[in-house]
Write the structure tokens for this entry.
Amino acid sequence: ATIICSLQRRPRPEYVPNHISDPLYVRVFDTTLRDGEQSPGATMTVEQKLKIAHQLANLGVDIIEAGFPVSSNKDRQAVQLIAEEVGNTVDEDGHVPVICALARCSKNDIDAAWEAVKHARKPRIHTFIGTSNIHMAYKLNMTKGEVLEKATSMVRYARALGCNDVEFSPEDAGRADKEFLYQILGEVIKAGATTLNIADTVGYTVPREFGKLIADIKSNTPGIDNVIISTHCQNDLGQATANTIEGACAGARQIEVTINGIGERAGNAALEEVVMTLKCRGEDVLEGLYTGINTQRIVMASKMVEEYTGLYVQPHKAIVGDNAIARQTGVRQDVMINCKGRYQIIDPKDIGLTRDHEAGVALGKLSGRSALKERLHQLGYMIKGEELDDVFMRFKAVCEHKKREGDAYCMLRKVKA
Ligand code: KIV
């Protein structure tokens, strides 16, 4: 494998709500502060949300979904503060993120959303309504005709308030009747929607199916070429990242994601996974698609979200897990050491790992002699020959009884002493 992630960041195209100025550019819509916060136990304070929003802007996120203002006073306050501060801060590249607020298809929700986001330079209202038969019958108790009327009138209402960037989500689109989707999406475009977000609300679809859904919507919805298609993939079957990538390959130019993949139930597509997939494989197999994310700030954002939400990242989590990139255990340690940085597909520096994180190999019972030698070398001990054999034998004996790398470390210190 080669390292390909040192590719330069490409300039971000100009933002016009419903216009694709570069056909290969994929907008990143982060919903850590809204859908992410819906994870049980992930509630954040207003100050923490503001800090995360600044971090997301630093990362280069195009759209920050800051919250659901009608849901609580605190949420309204957080969205307004983020709109005022983050939504008016221009970065070194001249970029200001869009600040978005969620609203159901109701005047009350839309008014609350608009009051909170209108302070941003680029405000967006995101409104949604259930479109699957299950949602319409059991949640909304509405007919298709009533849902259609509600969706179009509420998009029109949001536009009439003065918001020129309105996103519409057909909730549970992954299980909805396709003909109905084409119809409702076509009507909300006429009513003024600028982004259509295809939500796989319960994470039901698989990649080939979700990709086809996006392609079918693109081919069959009247007026679709004048708006942006978006994906919102939940992770109930563990398919969220793959579905998002398939959606982008089929024509979506906005992806909805969260840091560390947090969100309701099994979470959402993880920003770091989708972005690094496009960065590593975009050029060769993913149609040349790219994002404007500054990937060197990924680890910083991940750590902040982990700390503020209390949702710990599993060690083997792709991209940001402690074991994911900089460490290799067991039989491949030799090749990693000999390849001097060319073995793994991502350069740790490219996601913002520092030298400390770059210990390179994690020691354990599967580690070989060269890994141990390398680590001793890093610690300042040049051991070889019989002396190394002796230390190695004693190291293995301790590892047999210890589970964690930290224990092996303690043992190394004992051996050294
Ligand atoms: O999962 C979902 O359907 C949502 C919508 C509001 C986009 O979060």
